[in-house]
Amino acid sequence: MENFTGSFTQQEPIPAAGIAAATAVMQHGRLHRYNTVDGETAETALLEEEFAAQTGAQFCLAVASGGYAMTTALRACGVGHGDRVLTNAFTLAPVPGAIAAVGATPVFVGVTPDLTIDLDDLAGKLDQADTLLLSHMRGHICDMRRLIALCDAAGVTVIEDCAHTMGAAWDGVPSGRWGRFGCFSTQTYKHINSGEGGLLISDDAEGMARAIMLSGSYMLFDKHSAAPPPETFAQIKYETPNISGRMDNLRAAILRPQLADLAQQAGRWNDRYAVLAGGLEDTGGLMLPHRPASEQFVASSFQFLLLDWPSDAVADVIARCKTRGVELKWFGGAEPTGFTSRYDSWRYAPSAPMPETDRVLAGIVDMRLPLTFSLADCALIARIIKAEVSAVWQSRAA
Ligand SMILES: *Cc1c(COP(=O)(O)O)cnc(C)c1O
Fold first, then answer.
1. Which of 30, 133, 266, 346 is the 20 to 30 A CA-CA neighbour of 91?
2. Residues near ligand 1 with C-beta < 6 Å?
């Protein structure tokens, strides 16, 4: 019997160019983004220029975390106390948490078996809020043309949570470029790694001016090069509170070389995904989410569905895979554990039951896909999952 012995949480090292750039920042000591000498552009400002250029956005702001990027986008769109914000029922805790952080209440929208937001459910709920915080959870991207058409017609502002879609696109348009703001995370488990960090992109000059003021720029906004022109700040600088959450030059220095490698890394992730998906095709009882050609995803994780399986059978598969070294997580568990939790476990945000969504959540099995796994590792993991799913499936059928 084959076992897997690799680590599901081991990242690749920071590229040598990132280590060298970080060392240079530590040697000159100017870690704060506004601490520059004459003629110097801070690493943080350079990172913003480069990410704006890469995504085609007019403006970019680097911040302290992905969660901070989301709260800042919500605030910059005028969302506050007592407002309601539409968001995905299938997402991670920082997303409803960002909505709660600005004093607003999430209104959850269901998930389809392809793990994207249920656009029919969304259509029925658009009259309940003025804003949608759309989470491209685990990198699954819905039909963005239909989503934007629905939201535009209803006057609903879209903010994208792109924590799992940096480098991805729908129909060639980068993820984060469909909504008014795109929010990204550079936390260790995302597509580029600075431990903690976030990026915000937008074409909305006034919204971005508010975001820059919110992030803690004092009156130093002219030190931002991927920012709207200074006249945009004329009134906004008086009216916007400072809620510090800046990025520093050390993190930016670590990130810039990783950003340059992003397309190549995305290809490596997708090669791994293809091996896993290929190895699990035609496994009785197991469903892979359909991924249309328009969805140019970056597969930094892997999901499959054991749809309509009893809970104890799903738990059995997970336990059997674990004894063979394959760590799977389940979104269907009644109790939140690790990073998995369900919309109904966020008790600060009351929700009505969603039976179709509960059915999907109960079947979602989730796996990290670090780039330290080789293609042979992925083939082995697929063999193990296939064998254990099949064993449980057949014992149930018998
Ligand atoms: C990680 C994550 C975030 C938030 O990022 P942090 O940088 O950890 O605050 C937001 N949304 C999703 C779906 C995430 O996985």
1. 266
2. 65-67, 91-92, 94-95, 135, 137, 161, 163-164, 185, 187, 198
